Amino acid sequence: MIKKTRLFTPGPTPSFPPAQQVMAESEIHHRTEEFKRILREALAGLRYFFQTQEDILIFASSGTGAMESAVANLLSPGDRALVVVGGKFGERWEELCKAYQVGVEKIAIPYGQALDPRVVRQRLEAGPSVGAVFVQAVETSTATEYDVRSLGAIVHEFPDTCLVVDAITGLGTMELRTQDWHLDLVVGGSQKAFMLPPGLSFVSVSEKAWRRVERSGSPRYYFDYRRERKSVARDQTAYTPAVSLIVGLSQVLRFVQEQGLDNVIRGARLQAEATRAAARALGLQVFSHSPCAACTGIRPPEGIPSTRVVQHLRKEFGLVIAAGQGELKEQLFRIAHIGYFDFYDILGMIGCLELTLEQLGHSLSLGSGVRAALQTYCQRREPGEPGE
Amino acid sequence: MIKKTRLFTPGPTPSFPPAQQVMAESEIHHRTEEFKRILREALAGLRYFFQTQEDILIFASSGTGAMESAVANLLSPGDRALVVVGGKFGERWEELCKAYQVGVEKIAIPYGQALDPRVVRQRLEAGPSVGAVFVQAVETSTATEYDVRSLGAIVHEFPDTCLVVDAITGLGTMELRTQDWHLDLVVGGSQKAFMLPPGLSFVSVSEKAWRRVERSGSPRYYFDYRRERKSVARDQTAYTPAVSLIVGLSQVLRFVQEQGLDNVIRGARLQAEATRAAARALGLQVFSHSPCAACTGIRPPEGIPSTRVVQHLRKEFGLVIAAGQGELKEQLFRIAHIGYFDFYDILGMIGCLELTLEQLGHSLSLGSGVRAALQTYCQRREPGEPGE
């Protein structure tokens, strides 16, 4: 039988087909008026996506490169940082700080638990001054959302401390008002809600962050925000940009503006809610106590390792989901809702998950997961918006 | 929310993405060795698809063009034909015969009923000799399959009568052994199980059919099989071929050969069976008493016209299905399984159909349709083939 391959991983996510088209045709040189126009348009679209009128910079790198750039541009060797660590990507902030000789004060959160912002306030008030607080909007490894809005309000009270948010997975799946919420540096990546292949990263930089950038003594060249800002003022990037991806980006951002960012976010949240309802109906437990909308982490049934669920879905149905990461590998599997998905996709995904669990020996009432998802759809639909 | 557009019409059907790729790149000239090689490969693939070692001809035309070619090449003005008419495409055979001054003897079948092959035998034995029997493998307008295998055995006994099968919708969704079953002329089209855009049609021509072709007195030029056969012997087409579609065709046929035609057919049949089970579980009636696997015709709930179901699915979920045709317009809606679909697609489709029916006021137990589809999948899966 025909079996299509479909990505349901929390990055890369399915690409937006019209962007694939324009990327395939994008043989243009980057030092041209044509490219300048496209870059200008992409940057305007990014400001909408990030909800900020402050600076946004684009790098040809993965998200980790942009995370590193935040550390290198904001902090100097010997500076101190507060790092929220609730999973693999929190650990990455910690590793990056250490690589740049930044002293790390860690706020450890049990996997899948919510962050209590008051803990951050206590540490900022009690301890010696820190240059930056590093956090995830969504900790992808545990599919957990953190309350960055409250963090923004707290850190805003400390004039020499910046809030750095890894929103690579969070952007486009949750409300995230970069400027209003005082998120000084927000990191994004192309292979997530931007519905593109990997290869582009984005950072937004607040005025407060720029003051730190100007005095950072850390070594940096490729990721130097000062040089990049000068280039952006001339509708350019400092070094050769990933041209095709930027062409695709501008196409995607036009689409998001047409759809409305709120609607895109609402779609992801509805899919996540439907998936959680389905999991519970199938007798499974959602891994996170503060679940995000970008992907849903689900504990596998007793006695069935996550990787068997992952392998079966791929082999039998062509559906590519993710197991846990690191020590969480067998403790959860993760289904993405970030990017180019609609409700039909969630129904197909849950149906195939039911068949998979049934075939692996989990006792379930066939169809109960999909029914819960359908009920979620009916309950959430506001009256009078059938044609949305 | 994001809403993808998906074709679930019984032609055009979703295109095969790797074929879209090669078609986009197919700027080659047709009088070249490169094109000859591609055409040779496509013709070999078509012989596999049609299950015949006899001649296959390719035309740049819609399926109707190829249907016309069958009449013009097999019959002369004043000849007689037996035409099975059980829907819009049976009527098309009738109209074509009349356009060529062929006397039509009609076997009328009520919409959605099976064909009793014995009726054809009786007419052939009783009446004056007919040059050809025209029939559909699948009558698309009523989603009904006819027993062409039995017809083949019957017509084979009459040395001067050819059996002409419109298998435009049937091919690739049902067993159809052109040569073994003595189907003298079988018509196909690119926009169906060939997973391509419309624009190509195919005919297989048996030795018995060639004898009629040689003596047909009907006017024809573009569709003249004699000229086309000579061109095919030189790996060419008589007139400018639809180059990109033939390039795509050769890609699709390679895929079908890799998958195995039996598996492709099995997939369509499973989807059709699951859809019928879902319809019944939702309290709906399958329109046909001899349902085909290419598409499923479903009677809408009492009081809800088919076109409302069609419109709602398109507006709310981006799913494009077909209402009935002609006078059957409001009596059924049709969901395709022909071409590039997998089981995930059926689950998404049925789930969205449930939401649509619920929103249009049909009383149903949400999830019951999808459950029936899932159960069909579980029952049909043979043991030991999880990784098929």
The shape of chain A, in one word, is: globular
CATH architecture classification name of the largest domain in chain A: 3-Layer(aba) Sandwich
Strand order of the largest sheet of chain A: 2-10-9-8-5-3-4
Helix content of chain A: 40-55%
Largest sheet of chain A: 7 strands, mixed
How many domains, in number, for the residues of chain A? 2
CATH topology of the largest domain in chain A: Aspartate Aminotransferase, domain 2
Oligomer class: homodimer
Look at the structure and give the mean pLDDT of chain A: 96
Please tally the helical runs of chain A, counting DSSP H or I stretches of 4 or more residues: 13
Q: What share of residues are in beta strands of chain A?
A: 15-25%
Runs of chain A in which pLDDT lies below 50 for 5 or more consecutive residues are: none
The CATH first-level class of the largest domain in chain A comes to Alpha Beta
Distance between the termini of chain A: 34 Å
